[in-house]
Amino acid sequence: MEIRPTTDQDHDVFVDTMHAAFGRFPETPAEGGGGVWWAALEMDRALLAVTADGRPVGTAAAYSFELTLPGEILAPAPGVTAVGVVPSHRRQGVLTALMRHQLSELRERGEFLSVLLASEAVIYRRFGYGPATYTSRLTVPRHRAALAAPRAAAVPDSGSVEVLRRSDCADILEEVYDRYRRAQPGALSRPHRWWERGAGQPPIAPAQRYVALHRDSAGVPDGYASYSLDASNTLTVDETIATDDSASTALARFVLGHDLVSQVVFKHCPPDHPLRWQLTDFRAGQVTDATDWLWVRLLDVPRALTARGWFTDGELVLDVTDPFLGEQGRHLLTVRDNKAECVPTDRAPDLSLDVGDLGSIYLGGTTPSTLVRAGHIRAHHPDAPALADALFRTARAPHCLHWF
């Protein structure tokens, strides 16, 4: 079996093999080749597993994204996607070979981390990925959707909400999302080619959607909610994007006040979303489908740790193992004035962990002490978990909306 890179000439074979791996048939692309989720594939970042007689039996690819790290730092982050093996060749080492080849290729490109969305949680831990951001669905019955007046002094929203069709404002959505993701830890960029080709899910995909567009007092767009209404009168919000809390609250108030609606479903809510607290009836907001979203894999531990921003000074010795790549390193992490140094050390470790668990705590969405209690991380003295929690703490929970 051979793992080989692809070119544009391999596109159709790659797409057919990928769909066969999942037992599905490709959708028919819209005119111009867009409107399907794989329309933004980068064939120079894709791999095919091919048998000795030339049959393609496995696929893996990556998108070129930017990931917002704590401290509003943007870092290159390949988004691993389209990973699959046709059923006739599963459990024969094809997936392992693909993942090993891909990680080696990412390192050769000089990238220090990668991300993915896991179709099955048990698959990717063994390749060094750990869940790093989380999301849930929030459902609010329309008759219980009143928002309470804020107790603390708040600046009243002086903006406006306008209803548009997605097809009439895609360029505005692209611009607003880009401003939002640059300040939101855990968010991924949406390259222009995604919007241009209608790749992914709404509101990037050209499916019909209404858009509640919020403008600030100067008329500048600063938030939107993409939504649709079904036959059961359920209003489903694909995503709410807002550059500040005032715009977010105004958009929530708008969709919750929509006429002829039985309930409003917010599909992607971060763990610290304030909406439940804003409802007059706290129990009106029902949280369901709480799940992992973005998984992180560190490829160069020192570079990754020094790339992100930090908010507490301190020192921590991390003994990190990478079972999949057969590597181990002990690192002294020193944080001063929001910046970190990470150097090899022979000092006794504070924490011992594998690279997947380090990926889980990297963005601040999972506390080290949680993984100590779960038996994933070994603390070598009683103060180590609290020290690690303080160091990896972030001002804002990481969250990712982008599907790939």
UniProtKB/TrEMBL annotation:
Positions annotated to bind acetyl-CoA: 83-85, 91-96, 119-120
- Which InterPro entries does the record match to this protein? Acetyltransf_17, Acetyltransferase_Eis, Acyl_CoA_acyltransferase, Eis_dom, GNAT_dom, NAcTrfase_Eis, SCP2_sterol-bd_dom_sf
Q: Which residues form the active site?
A: 124 (proton donor), 404 (proton acceptor)
* Signal sequence interval, chain numbering: none
- List residues traversing the bilayer: none
Highest taxon listed in the record's lineage: Bacteria
Which Gene3D superfamilies does the entry link to? 3.40.630.30, SCP2 sterol-binding domain (3.30.1050.10)
Q: Which UniProt keywords apply?
A: Acyltransferase, Transferase
Q: Which residues form the N-acetyltransferase domain?
A: 1-153
Q: Which family does it belong to?
A: Belongs to the acetyltransferase Eis family.
Question: Sorted alphabetically, which HAMAP family does this protein's record hold?
Answer: Eis
Describe its assembly. Homohexamer; trimer of dimers.
Please report the name of this protein according to its UniProt entry.
GNAT family N-acetyltransferase
